[in-house]
Amino acid sequence: MSSRLRDSGQSTGVAPEFTVDPAMLDAISPSGDRGGIVLGSGLKGEPLTISALRSTPTRIVLVGGLYLARQVAMRAMAVGAWVVVATGRPAAWQVLPQAAGNQRDGRPSPLVQIRRLSPVELPRPSEDAPLLVVTDGGPTPQDLFPPRSPWQTTVYVLPYLHPQAGATANAADLVLMQRLPAGQAELAARIWRLPPQMMRQLTTLKDDQVVALGRNLWRPLRLVTTAKEQQLLGPVRRGD
Questions:
Q1: pLDDT on residue 62
Q2: 119/86 Cα distance (integer angstroms)
Q3: What SS3 class is residue 150?
Q4: Which 3 state secondary structure label does DSSP give 197?
Q5: Whole-model pTM?
Q6: So what's the pLDDT on residue 36?
Q7: What pLDDT score does 33 carry?
Q8: In terms of domain of life, where is this protein from (predicted)?
Q9: How far is residue 188 CA from its own chain's centroid?
Q10: Cα–Cα distance, 12 to 5 (Å, whole number)
């Protein structure tokens, strides 16, 4: 897992380069590294990149607010991924079609689809057009779209940790956690067998801080947000 979160410029875990319409890059203005997603910065201000779009089926669990989930989805779009969002709150995700340029000609963008929480046929992912599926189904999400093929990444958005989400959490290749209350931090410690110091750190994160957790990986980072992302998403925040 450590190769999937890397400092910009390292040679490990390098994702392939995807192409994207220049208008999309202009709209979102992301920081990217050959298909990787710059999620935040380290303690010394160095950019930290996740290879979320890979040749292996990938699961990512986000524990936190909509801000983080929508930012990850937008940055996947910006490096050329298809994005399908299955959600019970579609209005909260309309910022993605707006970012994709739906409003320019009044027609839906093929890059992003907002769906209900029910099984649908997904676009076929490929190296040139990877697929990010966001399941925004509450703290105990149904596994409607498990990643079964290369170049598909499924993101599970958990507003808070729930004991019944343990199986989903344990199956994740990468977990991104924002600040947790003490009780949820204790649950996180049980799910991932965290030592007391890591459990305490989860309760003291600032609004713009995230912990990236995986096999042999514990990396606190600070979210990096561009000016244009702030126009679309508002200020960095922990909640929804």
A1: 96
A2: 9
A3: coil
A4: helix
A5: 0.84
A6: 73
A7: 43
A8: Bacteria
A9: 19
A10: 9
Q: How far apart are CA 174 and CA 59, in angstroms?
A: 7
Instruction: Name the one residue in this structure whose structure tokens are 């739906």.
Output: 102
User: What crossing angle do the helices spanning 182-192 and 196-203 adopt, rounded to 10°?
Assistant: 140
* SS3 category, 193: coil
The whole-angstrom separation of Cα 111 and Cα 70 is 14
Put residue 11 in one of left, alpha, beta given phi > 0 → left and psi -120 to 50 → alpha.
alpha
Looking up tokens 């996740």 gives 50
Residue 141 burial (10 A CB sphere; 0-12, 13-18, 19+): buried
Mean per-residue pLDDT pooled into runs of 10, the chain (240 residues): 44 35 38 62 84 91 94 90 94 91 55 90 91 94 90 95 91 94 96 96 95 91 87 84
The residue among 94, 115, 130 whose CA lies nearest residue 232 is: 94
Give phi and psi for 174, each to the nearest 5: -145, 140
Q: What integer pLDDT is reported at residue 199 of this predicted model? A: 97
